[in-house]
């Protein structure tokens, strides 16, 4: 089930550049359902499922990485100085429980400031070490920590967790592969790396695959909490078909095909116009001489925080859209 798959992938450690554990979990989940599965030099997990003869090759991309902090220095007192990996804000990190890949736990703290505005340079991580020597037995320079995993049900349909960006899309793509029979078109499913630091993995994968068209699957921002009204996207009202963001204007034929798939599936959808951000869809679109591409988004509150919130009804609808889309007629 989609919810079970989501819970499985949410709990795996995988900051940008260290996505191997996520890829291993997905490989174990998918290997019996696909025609080929491999990992490329970048670390992207590339899964292929053949369609009917003369079908187009559609690249779907959902990124495995999530934001974190990397250790840059260790003070004599044992506190860790850190710098962001991806879009980490100071407000989201204040007194947050974090965990390293080794299992070491810590608390991210902002030190008091005197006469200056607090910034990321004032952030440190307390791992309980009495001094630098003890800290070095626990972590080292270059180690990365992420928000500690916790899955919190909110009401009947909603779930909060860190790494929802973009593990919810990884769960969607995995379920598409497991549930679809022989699709009309060939599926090249990429579980990409390093999206949070510049869609690096998807760019390399798209160049190698050279798809006929592509779809990024990601979260998008929300407009349904106090004093937050844009983008005009609400949780529970359907997955969002992206028209544009800072990185791309969706190719009209792909955008319209996603809308048609939603209407054929009989599920609600929203139109997304995001005045910031970017997704793997742009990396596909910019590849080689250009690839027709779009993005299907899951509305998500409090993106890049320890409590990213989605609505499972949007997830269920998105899965139906993807099923219809992959069986679409995209010409000879």
- How many domains? The number is 2
What low-confidence regions span 5 or more consecutive residues with pLDDT below 50? none
Whole-angstrom Rg = 20 Å
Strand order of the largest sheet: 1-2-12-3-13-16-14-15
Please give the share of residues in helix: 25-40%
Shape: globular
Q: Judging by the overall fold, what is the CATH architecture of the largest domain?
A: 3-Layer(aba) Sandwich
Instruction: Give the ordered list of helices and strands.
Output: HHEEEEEHEEEHEEEHEHEEHEHEEH
SSE-based structural type = alpha+beta
Strand content: 25-35%
Give the C-level CATH assignment of the largest domain: Alpha Beta
What characterizes the major β-sheet?
A: 8 strands, mixed
Q: Would you mind describing this structure in some detail?
A:
- The structure is a single chain.
- The chain is α+β, with helices and mostly antiparallel strands and 332 residues long.
- The protein has two domains: 2-66 and 162-326, Aminopeptidase (3-Layer(aba) Sandwich); 68-147, Peptidase M42, domain 2 (Elongation Factor Tu (Ef-tu), domain 3), CATH 2.40.30.40.
- It has helices spanning 2-10, 20-30, 90-93, 132-136, 164-179, 200-209, 252-265, 280-285, 312-326; strands at 36-39, 45-49, 57-63, 68-74, 80-85, 96-100, 105-110, 123-126, 144-147, 152-154, 158-161, 186-192, 213-220, 239-244, 269-273, 293-299, 308-311.
- An eight-stranded mixed beta sheet has the order 1-2-12-3-13-16-14-15, with helices on both faces.
- A hairpin with a 3-residue loop joins strand 10 and strand 11.
- The longest helix has 16 residues, at 164-179.
- The mean pLDDT is 96.
């Amino acid at each position: 089930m989609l919810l079970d798959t989501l819970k499985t992938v949410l709990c795996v450690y995988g900051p940008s550049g260290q996505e191997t554990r996520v890829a291993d979990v997905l490989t174990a989940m998918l290997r019996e359902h696909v025609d080929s599965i491999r990992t490329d030099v970048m670390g992207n997990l590339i899964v292929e499922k053949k369609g009917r003869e003369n079908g187009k090759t559609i690249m779907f991309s959902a990124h495995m990485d999530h934001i974190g902090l990397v250790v840059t220095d260790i003070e004599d007192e044992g506190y860790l100085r850190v710098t962001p990996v991806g879009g980490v804000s100071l407000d989201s990190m204040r007194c947050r429980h974090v965990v390293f890949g080794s299992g070491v736990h810590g608390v991210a703290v902002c030190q008091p400031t005197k006469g200056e505005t607090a910034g990321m340079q004032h952030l440190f991580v307390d791992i309980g070490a009495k001094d630098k020597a003890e800290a070095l037995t626990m972590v080292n320079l270059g180690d990365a920590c992420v928000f500690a995993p916790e899955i919190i049900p909110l009401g009947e349909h909603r779930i909060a967790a860190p790494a929802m960006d973009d593990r919810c899309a990884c769960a969607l793509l995995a379920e598409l592969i497991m549930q679809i029979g022989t699709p009309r078109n060939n599926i090249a499913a990429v579980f990409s790396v390093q999206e949070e630091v510049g869609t690096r993995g998807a760019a390399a994968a798209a160049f190698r695959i050279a798809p006929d068209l592509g779809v990024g699957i990601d979260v998008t921002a929300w407009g349904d909490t106090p004093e937050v009204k844009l983008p005009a996207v609400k949780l529970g009202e359907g997955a969002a078909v992206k028209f544009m963001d800072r990185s791309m204007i969706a190719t009209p034929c792909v955008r319209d095909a996603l809308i048609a798939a939603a209407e054929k599936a009989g599920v609600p959808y929203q139109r997304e116009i995001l005045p910031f951000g970017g997704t793997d869809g742009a990396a596909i679109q910019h590849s080689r001489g250009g690839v027709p591409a779009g993005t299907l988004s899951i509305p998500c509150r409090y993106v890049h925080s320890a409590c990213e919130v989605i609505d499972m009804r949007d997830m269920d609808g998105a899965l139906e859209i993807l099923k219809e889309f992959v069986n679409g007629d995209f010409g000879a």
